[in-house]
Amino acid sequence: MDLKPGSRWKSAVCDAEFVVVRPPKAPVSLECGGHQVIPHADARPGDLVLSDAHAAGSAAGKRYTDAETGLEALCSKAGAGSLSVDGRAIGAAEAKKLPSSD
Amino acid sequence: MHTALLLDMAADAAPDRLALGRRADGLTFHVARRRARAGAAWLAGQGGETVAFLGLNGPALPTALFAAGLLARPFAPLNYRLPDADLNKLLARTTPSVAIVDDDMTGRLQPHPGVTVVTRSAFEAACAAEPPDELPWAEPDIAVLLFTSGTTGEPKAAILRHSNLTSYVISTVEFLGAEEDEAALVSVPPYHVAGISAVLTGVYGGRRIVHLEAFTPEAWVEAAAAEGITHAMVVPTMLGRILDILEARGESLPSMRALSYGGGRMPLPVIERALNLLPHVDFVNAYGLTETSSTIAVLGPDDHRMALYSDDEAVKRRLGSVGKPLPALELEIRGPDGEVLGPNQSGEIYVRGEQVSGEYTSKKVIGADGWFATNDGGFMDEDGYLFVEGRLDDVIVRGGENMSPGEIEDVLREHPGVADVAVLGLPDNEWGEKVAAVVVAKDAPPAADELAAWVKARLRSSKTPEVWAFREALPYNDTGKLLRRQLKAEMSAPAAAA
Questions:
Q1: How far apart are CA B292 and CA B350, in angstroms?
Q2: How far is A6 from chain B (nearest CA, A)?
Q3: Radius of gyration from C-alpha coordinates of chain A
Q4: Which residue from A41, A95, A101 is facing B295, i.e. has the nearest CB?
């Protein structure tokens, strides 16, 4: 899968949607809810189920990062599944609170 | 990533929250998205590539910005304060384009081949239509074209890409981080980078945006009260005029939580007065450039308060700094040979990061390694606070010594008889340049000797102006930038030399 910056993906098993903010250094599989994410424009297959091991949820506006490969994805729509890279669960980056300046 | 996705996310997560306009009749995020999508579908049928925008602030601005973004067409807001001839020149440079123009401004435009003019009312009527389910997909590229103020010549068109703007927004703003009752008053004009970034960060943060059509201090204070405004961004000249109104009326902006300022050098007396008059307000100094998608450094509320109350000179002087660089950026001070300088050494400010475009339609001024030379001079202190000394073109070189006009201006502004001041270099046969000061007095003009002694006592004698002039007012453009070059030309004319 070509996880280029700006590309949009969605979970195959829940409502979650993602945008790639930073690509991985080497090709990887990005999964949500235990199944590889699918291109944003594609229809969800009906036969897959959310894996209990990857059901911690994804929150809109959170940025999820994989320290190992540098992959960073912004969750653009919330869902029940959580992200993993090649089967490894990845977490949300610590948000740095900045005073609003605009 | 499309800028329109920022609106999409907010509309999905908080459809019923108010996004744009007044409490009484504002638009929710759901409606704001519908209008942008309907507007995009309509614009797609108008031909052209660029979407030019000529008009006052209002809900049509975000709608048009997102509609253009949805079509991946560049959005080019134009400065309606320009003389007609200059305005028409800029409009001609947007071709092929469709231009959304305030109804009462269409008469100022000449016909240009390749430019389709539509009125703002026609655009807004189209936005009320049922939006299509699908819009054609277009790869995002240039999001916004901003014409620089052109104080140095022909305006350049700065390019801000979708990737620059969205990375700025998602790295600095917490998604829907605003409380439901928060509202931002936007009074910087649409053709200023802060007018664009205010829309994008406001939407992503979930903060209602209230536009002031055009700034007057009275209208600003009244809108702040009527709409329960909690946040606003102003340029330094605006803040000074707002404080005058508040003092005259004995008001204190009770609902305001945070005021940010930027877009020019803030005189210390003005910010000190603001901190004392509005102790409940968090002040934020934001430094940025058009070419960097707005803010690159911020001085936060705690730093402001500490600087005001501290006895430590190093902490006190931070009130004159722009704070620390944003964490998502790299920032360096470099010397004339490109070497990176240490703390308290003045050089040119360089910046690198995803929000930095450093690009114009005419040329790219960003290095292959991603570093952008800002053309601003400055230094950092031991703790990483950035001090901006002004445009490098404005630096006065007297007998081989570099002097920043801002430093001398700051000292003169502290004088009780000085209301405003500009310092600049004039040609000099002996020293190359000599220091000149143009002073706006508060009442009766102070004696030049007295002002010279004032500067000499606080700086060095080489920094003491040799030429003094007194004026009723200084020339500023409408976003508060001093027209130093114009002043310099006037002062260099033989009649002014006496």
A1: 11
A2: 4
A3: 13
A4: A101
